Amino acid sequence: MMRKINYCWRLIATATAFTLFGMGGVIVPLLALPALYLLPGGVSKRQLRARKLVHWTFRVYIHIMRLLGILTWDIDHLDQLQRPGILVIANHPTLLDVVFLVAFIPHADCIVKSRLMMNPAMRGFVTLTGYITNDSAETLMESAKQSLLSGSALIVFPEGTRTQPGQDLSFQRGAANIVVRSGVVPTPVVIQCEPVTLSKQHKWYHIPKERKFHLSFQVLDDVEMDQFMALSPSLGARHLTCYLEDFFSAKLNIDKHEST
According to DSSP H, which parts of the chain are helical? Predict the structure, then answer.
């Protein structure tokens, strides 16, 4: 009986949390818009203030989810994410990965899917912050370089979409191209979720039956880049992509020859 009550509570709490996120995604940008435009400074200052606002909004939100009993989390070496001008490369197991990383990083910039501009819960945040959309590869690369030069911490998910549970990691070359063409060494973040939930195969209501889920964030040392920078940009990006796939697979205990 208690197990069933716990499950029902977590389902209701999850619905509440997602509703809260949707409402906040509409209301917070609307309330912040006048102040952001009235305060002195140009576009860059306005975007910086908006990113700090989103950082604190998401930080409050992840604590609300924990208080509701939906999830728990831990993070190793958080201080590594507080540095300016870093390129954060992470695997992408859940829908909440970007929310947590932005909550951990006060000056975060992100590369996001352009279709998020059609999502009412995210459109306001993306517009105010100037997050980079993946409309054009050439524009994306230049925007990423400028973001890093400005001191932002740029978050990139090389998979381009959420991980398919039980399958090999498949990284696109976009993240590696940013690395070799900007010269910024990547900071890997390994994200794990137990039990598996909020993946590409899960709807929001497919919550774990037995208990709340736990998210673990492991911030690792920067990747040494000399061997990749010695190659041509295209070849270096190709080799780095393969290296990152193997690196993350090893950290996640994924056997690339046995997974299905």
Answer: 2-38, 43-67, 97-104, 120-129, 137-149, 174-182, 226-229, 233-251
β 213-219/71-76 pair status: parallel
Whether the CB-CB separation of 58 and 102 falls below 8 Å is answered with yes
Spell out the residues 6+ positions from residue 226 whose beta carbon is closer than 8 angstroms to its own. Answer: none
How far is it, in rounded angstroms, from Cα 48 to Cα 36?
10
Q: In whole angstroms, what is the distance from residue 195 CA to residue 70 CA?
A: 12
Q: Which of 165, 257, 179, 177 is nearest to 222 (CA)?
A: 179
The two tokens of residue 50 are 């908006």
If the chain, 260 residues long, is cut into consecutive pieces of 10 residues, what is the mean pLDDT of each piece?
90 96 94 89 90 96 97 96 95 96 95 85 90 82 91 94 88 93 94 94 90 96 92 94 95 64
First-to-last alpha carbon distance for the chain, in angstroms, is 37
Q: Tokens 């105010």: give the residue.
A: 128
70 alpha carbon, distance to own chain's centre:
19
Query: What pTM was computed for the model?
Result: 0.93
In whole angstroms, give the CA distance from residue 48 to residue 257: 44
